[in-house]
Amino acid sequence: MESEASSVPAPSASVRVQRSQALDDLIMGTNSSSIVSKRSVERLYYPDEPHYFRYFVKKFQRRAPLINRGYWLRLRAIDVIVHQFLSRSAGQRVIINLGCGSDVLPWQSHVRYGDECRDALFIDIDYPDLMHKKRALVLETPQLKELLGPSFEVSKSDKDLVLLKSEKYCQIGCDLRELEALRQVLDTLVDLSNCPVLFVAEVSVTYMDTESADNLLKWASSVGKAEFCLLEQLLPYGRSHPFAQTMLKHFDKLKTPPRSVGHYPTVGDQCERFKSRGWSSVRIWDLWDAWCCGEFVNAQQRASLDDVEPFDEWEEFILFARHYFVLHASAAENLETIHDATSTQTSKSSSSKELEIQFTTIPGSSKRRFGAPATLQNAEGRSFGLNVMGLGPNARDGSYDVYSLDGGISEDYFVFNPEKGWLQCKTVGDVPKPSFGSIVCNNPVGSSTGKFSGLFCGGIEKTGLVVEEKYEWTLDMASQQPTITFTSARKDFVPELSIFGANVVDLNGNTLVCGGMGADRRVDGQAMYCLTSSESNVEVAIIKQCLGDAAIKPFMIGSSTLYHDGFIIIAGGGSFPHTASITTIPRISLISTSEFESILRRGQPVVIENLQLGECIEKWTAAYIIDRVGSDKKVVVHECQIETGKMDFNAKNFQYVTENFGNIMARAKNGDRLYLRSLSNDKPTEQPAKLEEDFPGLAMDFVLPEQLRYVKEQLFSSVLRVSGKVNMWLHYDVMANVYAQVVGSKRMILFPPSDVPQLAFAPGASSSSVDVFSSLETPKLARTRPHEAIVRPGDVLFLPPLWLHTATPTTDMSVAVNIFFRDLDSGYAAGRDVYGNRDLAAYEKGRQDVAKIAKQFQQLPEETRKFYLARLADELLQSGEGN
Questions:
Q1: Where are the alpha helices (DSSP H) in 193-323?
Q2: What is the DSSP string of 506-522?
Q3: Strand partners, 727
């Protein structure tokens, strides 16, 4: 039965930590993305377990194999530490999930470790708004509600922090920065001082300000027999490393940057963080160490993952795993130390030395691809470097051949004979285990007797580990069947060469090993090593410049490397998402009307400078405009209701407000979220706006110069625009127009009409809900061709018809005059068109015809209907390409 939970009031406003609700909302929003990924892992990798994430994810989305494997490892690391805690002792134990979001740890633990969970209490804690939603879902879902048992308590007051209470599971809605409130509410549920407690925080407390997060860790160490499991980001190679830049930029775009990683970037820093805050014993692994460590994942488990889905992103996976850690700390007892956090960070190979090299960026640009290199010569003997085919940002480029190797990783070795082709070798000695992505270098000193030697090391073996063994090899070609003999190198021989995915380049008798990721933490995708072989020894030198700033070094993951004429050429690769390339709209000066008409015919946007627009540029201050218009004049404005100021016409996240013009100008000057688009004074629903009729006191200051005479002759409307700190939604205008900036400045983004399929315009709609400014540098708009301009006082932007555009302010207030004009002799829709954006008559008629055509096919079978409609659509597209 249900009863009312004990009431623990939320802290009063006077003692609450001051915070931004908007930031808290953004942090809660990170939960939505992570649970979609966890649901993908749950469905694919745990088919034999009950699925609980499914109830928190409305629509299943299969993530890419790299994301799936990364989240599988995250979940596995947490699960192992929780299981160790549960099985370590009997009696009452408490697991407190800090910033739990929609995690289903209590349900999964009871399914997997039912006996150990018999006397365990799981407590979920997060923001009140999020926990109210989670409580509602638990109560309405029988599979989740079952954990509560027959008797549980539900809070009836929104002021209570304990939202749900049962013998096995409780929910608390509390800001983790409010430690006193957190302590009080936990005391009402359990006596923490007399039982083991495990705090779990998976990428949650890192979003708190660092001081508050540190205070939370210190407080947790004082709670009885406390342990802590923390999983967060690392910056093992610094903020300027390419992967770190990409990771941090991703969180910055979400406006939820991880705070702790800047103060504690390495595993050593995190160890010291905990030890200095009352945790007597700390164990820590970056996730690659956890992947390799049998305590978390054994060989059979690693190998079994490949049975679920193919995986070939090992370099990226290692990079990801190196940039996350899992930590297990105890304040009450010493944990067995199984990992030295700094052992592989500061050691230096005794068998290496340093060489110098100079990096030079080749001017110009080429297509980014994960391709293959080659060097060719033309008939005149000139050499060319090629980087061909492979995978581009979106798809494979050019033609390619597919070669299939049955059986996967093989134990066989072959040598190529120019006359006989590939010959299988007989293997002798310490034969390496099968692997792929290894590196092989040759001793340049050949043998007249047909014997050759070199070094073999690295690669990924079948259980998903980087091979740490290294081998010297000798190839005997003198016998009828080639024989290759392997001898194991000493264990401490250059640990950096336990590497995967590196490029190997022959360098005038030496071998250069470039990039790749390895078992050693120092191998970061930017390291380079030079191997010098002799008949009796192999010397290794690290390239000195690869020890410096990561921002200026090449990132050699998936890259192609060539040596030619004393130069090493590194091209392609990287770990950067493909984003749209932004074109800067050109700036020009006009001398004559004919020049503008030529621009109009070309149909490309331009910013026109140095036009004489009258006295408005000098006179139009806020006070002057109010004086000329009248402070008491009533105007209707858009008032944006969200703090970001991103207006969305489709979502209607604004309200229309009628207010005195003087008040509107004062608020706009202060940067309030307001937007005024003037309408006709006399007939606002019937006639377009005209500056000279609607604002005669301002019209005398604004002049269309002679160069824009065509605009004046074909004028449809002239609109006064006043705005504060708001973004204009993405839309298009059917008529051409010029936008004259008078006060302040704006950033304008335009897209050509052909980009409309990429920008989520509904049929018949002239506006879209795509948030361009937050999406520009993401793959979401990768297939678009954005054009950008910053317009300042005196600039006039020409917007061709149907160019999709949006704007954001770069100053608190913006004032502009926007003139629409007819650039077609005919074809405009009949009837009223106040805004100048009613679609052409042919399109409106065409949509009616499309509806009639579709109706004629409704009675046919679905596949037949799709077949013929697709053919008709092709005909329409072909007719559009004709003259």
A1: 210-221, 242-253, 260-263, 267-275, 287-292, 299-305, 314-322
A2: EETTEEEEE--EESSTT
A3: 646
Quote the tokens at residue 709: 């005479």
Q: Does 171 have pLDDT greater than 90? A: yes
And the tokens for 842?
């042919």
Residue 328, number of CB atoms within 10 A of its CB:
23
pLDDT at 87: 93
75-84 average pLDDT score: 97
Report all structural domains of the chain as residue ranges with CATH numbers, in order of start.
Answer: 2-330 (3.40.50.150), 370-394+408-571 (no CATH), 583-824 (2.60.120.650), 844-881 (no CATH)
pLDDT > 80? residue 533: no
Tokens representing 658 are: 């009628």
Residue of higher predicted confidence among 557 and 669: 669
- The dihedral sign for the CA sequence 302, 307, 312, 317: negative
Contact, 414 vs 422, CB < 8 A?
Answer: yes
Helical axes 314-322 vs 65-88, angle rounded to 10° = 40
Q: What is the mean pLDDT of residues 278-291?
A: 95
| Token representation of residue 859 | 């009675």
Three-state SS at 352: strand
Closest CA to 644 of 795, 522, 774: 774
Place of tokens 């004979």: 417
Which region, left, alpha or beta, applies to residue 248 given φ > 0 means left and ψ of -120 to 50 means alpha? alpha
Sign of the alpha-carbon torsion through 293, 299, 304, 305: positive
State which amino acid sits at residue 244.
Answer: A
Structure confidence at residue 351 (pLDDT): 47
How many Cα atoms within 13 Å fall on the side-chain side of residue 522? Answer: 21
Say what the pLDDT of residue 333 is.
66
Residue 229: burial class (beta carbons within 10 Å; 0-12, 13-18, 19+)? buried
pLDDT in tens, 51-74: 999 999 988 889 999 999 999 999
Please answer whether residues 819 and 797 qualify as being in contact, where contact means their C-beta atoms are separated by less than 8 angstroms. Answer: no
Q: CB under 8 Å, gap of 24 or more: what pairs does 28-32 form?
A: 28/101, 28/126, 28/127, 28/129, 28/130, 29/254, 29/256, 30/101, 30/203, 30/207, 30/254, 30/256, 31/101, 31/102, 31/130
Widest CA span in the chain: 103
pLDDT, tens digit, 9 for 90 and up, residues 818-838: 999 998 888 888 778 888 778
**Among 123-137, 376-390, 436-450, 712-726, where is mean pLDDT lowest?**
376-390
Q: Which amino acid is at 689?
A: A
**C-alpha distances out from residue 193 to 186, 530, 686, Å:** 11, 58, 74
Residue with tokens 């080429």: 366
Segment 732-736 shows an average pLDDT of: 92
* Owner of token pair 């993405």: 730
Sign of CA dihedral 3, 4, 8, 13: positive
